[in-house]
């Protein structure tokens, strides 16, 4: 619903004697030629003042002043209304120029009155008043046409009284799209007077423009998008249809009341009434097309714009039909079970062939978003500005290890890896407010990636969530996911399904390390990378791996230059393990500098070398009570998989029979902690024993059962 709270309604139309002197007074230029009738002898006004007066006083007065002063109506639904009566269409308006603005000040809506008993007033409205309004307001202000004095018109013997024919009315509505309604009324008989003003207010509060394209005669694409998302939210069983129960849930959410069986039948009849070529019902359930059809009928045929706006408001859309995100999203850099389940369901619902999502399927999933492209599409890279990384595999396939049937992703080009992606935020978890649009993210942009397997689909989401949790959640929300806050989704004792690895190095030139990074980032995914010593190696990828009967998503983010150590320190805490790569003693020095300069003691880390081990590194790890360096062989078959398994084990540390040592002096600290706990326990036990013996002494003096005596019987001392 439009957020306006103070509305001004202008009441316009012919006045007394107007027709006789009108021609000479029209001096302004109009886009439409004026053909003015001069043959009438009527002198009465069309009843503007009478309408206002009757509406306010609920009584028809035979005589009213020529022009009423501004009428301020008491607030209704939090909205105040001012009625502005005018005299005989007012010379001021006719003699004004549009550049000077409307002579009556700001106007939200216009009630244009004609006399239904005098057809010439209708023609004059058509030829003079409506072009004049268009000239002044450019079609931006909605107009409700009131055909007053129907009581007098009905006295006449003509088929339509003396008023306009239906054909003339249709042509008026066609020519002037800003005319929202034509209502027959009578101030004298208090017939439809309320309706005239109510509709004039509604036309402002529930504007038709954003939801219905009057030129094309169909719902706007923005409104269809919003409705499609709404349909998805209520299609709980994800069969692409709305069952009666789902329809009831929709009704309850929007209007807070339950639907009756008759209501449902009425809706279904309404849907089937339209002669559409597309399927509107299937197995007694409503298809998306059918759902859209309901709103088409409501707006185009029943002129009930308040219903669509109610739906939009309840579904959290603003006046421009942008989805308003909730105050805050979850910042957990790992997808919840509930979210993963939703994505899996979505995959199954949309994959059209062979268990893979085609680019068209992906486009269908994202068609409800403002920008119908997945967040990893490189054209949306701008949204990751301010995040610590952007998806390295943007616009490419991420192929799970060991599935050679999928073609390898193309090598990233230099332009894919613009420097903007590595900007490091002051906060490790970016907020939505910092995002900005990508370069080419127009709503018509089509997605070219795919086909995508289920694990690849999930990998992409895990990756986006690891880089920017709030962005991932906002995208999920946009495609129709609404968190049900299931308790089990948050309570998780299971091992994590996502393993987040941060690779840190502080040198660009070293080929060995660059190669190692490429190993981790790309060879893990079975892709060939053209090695270039100059190439920057940063970004984030994700791949899925079967481990101990569970799918684990490995998210690898690589930062190969550390310009803001404080920020990297904060970032490292979000990751499960940090990899410090090296390949000789010199690069090992760099790795230890990174370790000391950036990592705090509680951050798990592992030194990783290519090819062979190095003595200094091993000594360092022993001294720090860390795992020995992880060696990744570039030549031996299956080395990558071993490295991955090792990384996964690192994160599931607590599950290993012998825990891996990933934090410096972790074991020593644990032993010290145990010792403190043991000593603490001893001291506590001593205090308890002393206390009890004191009690015992007192108790035995009184002849009662001593506490120590009882304890002695239970405990073996
Ligand atoms: N029969 C009938 N007469 C009406 C009705 N409404 C107004 N009239 C009469 O029409 C005449 C003009 O009404 P006004 O309200 O003064 O018209 P107006 O449009 O304000 O005219 P100006 O102030 O001169 O611009 C009066 O004699 C009213 O009594 C109606 O619904 N039915
Ligand atoms: Mg008047």
TrEMBL record:
Listed GO biological process terms: small GTPase-mediated signal transduction
PROSITE patterns for the chain: EF_HAND_1 (PS00018), EF_HAND_2 (PS50222)
TM spans (from-to): 676-695
Subcellular compartments: Mitochondrion outer membrane
UniProt-recorded Gene Ontology molecular function terms: calcium ion binding; GTP binding; GTPase activity
One annotated Gene Ontology cellular component of this protein: mitochondrial outer membrane
Region (Disordered): 396-420, 428-447
Name this polypeptide is given: EF-hand domain-containing protein
Originating organism: Thalassiosira oceanica (Marine diatom)
